[in-house]
Amino acid sequence: MEDTSRVLIIREDTFLKGEIRNGGRIEVFGYVEGDIAGDLLVVQPGGRCFGKVKVDAADVRGQLQGDIHVRQLINIRGTGEVTGNVKYGKLSMELGGVLSAEMRNIPPSISGDLDLSVDKGKAVRITPQDLSAIDPDDVAELLTFTVSQVRNGFVTLATDPARPVEVFTQADLEQGTVLFRHDGTDEPRASFAVVVADRAGATSGAAQTVNVAVRSHA
């Protein structure tokens, strides 16, 4: 019987950066970046795992990339893709599965709750908890957001808060210099959309909307 106390599940809407040590069964539906050590790593379809991995066995149905050491069996399913410096005891690979030593550029993803609140006519700082870029192979300065579809306000930087901007970086977010300024209209909501691109030009895909609730004080 499996020891459920040593089962770690990374859900679809979860982005985890850091270390996983002494894991039992590690099951990835979402995004993991960092050092991973455990008994069994399962990367589910749509799951993405990047970094230094050292496990007894692996079952890959999603994407696994990095410095990979599987002591026993690595099973790459038809939807699985494993790239990087890969060492293993035994290999099983279904038709459609990919095993490659060529490291590929990973497109960035957008994370965060994508929700803000601002006082009418005022500005609010956009934090990495509100909006962030996830990319294992590019530093924050090279992850660039493009703003579009702005409604009832504008995105700006703290260095020049009266001037709207159409681009900013993940580094700007981490430094706390990105703001949304409301335009003072009476509508209870504002919004803007963003796409993030990396150094190679790969993007997060379709623009995602950041919703802004407007607080009106009598």
- Sketch the topology as an H/E string, one letter per element: EEEEEEEEEEEEEEHEEE
CATH topology of the largest domain: Immunoglobulin-like
CA(first)-CA(last) distance:
62 Å
What is the CATH homology-level superfamily of the largest domain? Immunoglobulins
Number of β-strand runs: 17
CATH class descriptor of the largest domain: Mainly Beta
Principal-axis shape equals elongated
Strand content: over 45%
**What integer is the average pLDDT?**
93
Total domain modules: 2
Q: Structural class of the helix and strand makeup?
A: mainly beta
* Continuous helix count: 1
Specify the helix fraction band: under 10%
What's the arrangement of strands in the largest beta sheet? Answer: 1-2-3-4-5-6-7
The residue ranges in which pLDDT falls below 50 over 5 or more consecutive positions are none
Q: Roughly how many Å is the radius of gyration?
A: 21 Å
Judging by the overall fold, what is the CATH architecture of the largest domain? Sandwich
Largest sheet: 7 strands, parallel
Tags for this model:
7-stranded parallel β-sheet, Immunoglobulin-like, 2% helix, 218 residues, single chain, 17 strands, mainly beta, 2 domains, 58% strand, 1 helix, 5-stranded mixed β-sheet
Mind explaining what this structure looks like?
With 218 residues, the chain is mainly β. It has one helix spanning 170-174; strands at 7-10, 15-28, 31-43, 48-60, 63-76, 81-93, 98-100, 109-111, 115-119, 123-125, 132-134, 144-151, 153-157, 167-169, 178-182, 189-197, 208-215. The chain folds into two domains: 4-100, no CATH class; 109-215, Immunoglobulin-like. A seven-stranded parallel sheet has the order 1-2-3-4-5-6-7, with no helix packed on it. The chain has a five-stranded mixed sheet with strand order 9-17-16-12-14. Pfam families: Bactofilin, Cadherin_3. Belongs to the bactofilin family.
